[in-house]
Design brief:
Number of strands: 0
Largest sheet: none
Number of domains: 2
Structural class: mainly alpha
Distance between the termini: 55 Å
Helix content: over 70%
Order of helices and strands: HHHHH
Number of helices: 5
Shape: elongated
Oligomer: single chain
Length: 131
């Protein structure tokens, strides 16, 4: 749990406007030091290495945060499905289904949606007569 909290805190911090401004300032400072270092290979290597390391670490941070947010969202949706009496509780275990089964289920729901489509023209006419 400590790692998840660390990732969430770091993700919030790294996505802030202050962090973005600090990154811009660092890039500008690096660019302004170019003439002093005669734009040599070491000067270029500093920014390349720094950004590569930061990007590499951020990939894992973002993935961890996204996985956590995804799990939380799914739990909330599962609770809504469970609490709704008209919902099909079988949809609570969709994560265990294979791709083909999910595709078939998607087709079934699409067919249900086609049968129950709302006539938007009629709905628009009804709303105009009510006004």
């Amino acid at each position: 749990m400590k790692f998840a909290r660390f990732c969430q805190t770091l993700s919030t911090w790294s996505g802030s406007s202050k962090t973005f401004l600090v990154a811009i300032v660092l890039i500008v400072v690096w660019g302004l030091t170019g003439p002093y270092f005669h734009y040599n290979d070491t000067w270029q290597l500093i920014i390349n290495t720094s950004t590569t390391i930061i990007t590499f670490l951020m990939v894992f941070l973002i993935q961890n945060t996204q996985n956590r947010d995804n799990d939380i969202l799914h739990l909330k949706i599962d609770e809504l499905i469970r609490a709704t009496t008209a919902a099909q509780n079988a949809s609570l275990c969709l994560d265990k289904m294979g791709t083909r089964d999910l595709r078939k289920l998607r087709e079934q729901y699409s067919a249900l949606a086609e049968n129950d489509q709302v006539d938007l023209a009629a709905a628009k006419d009804d709303s105009q007569t009510d006004a």
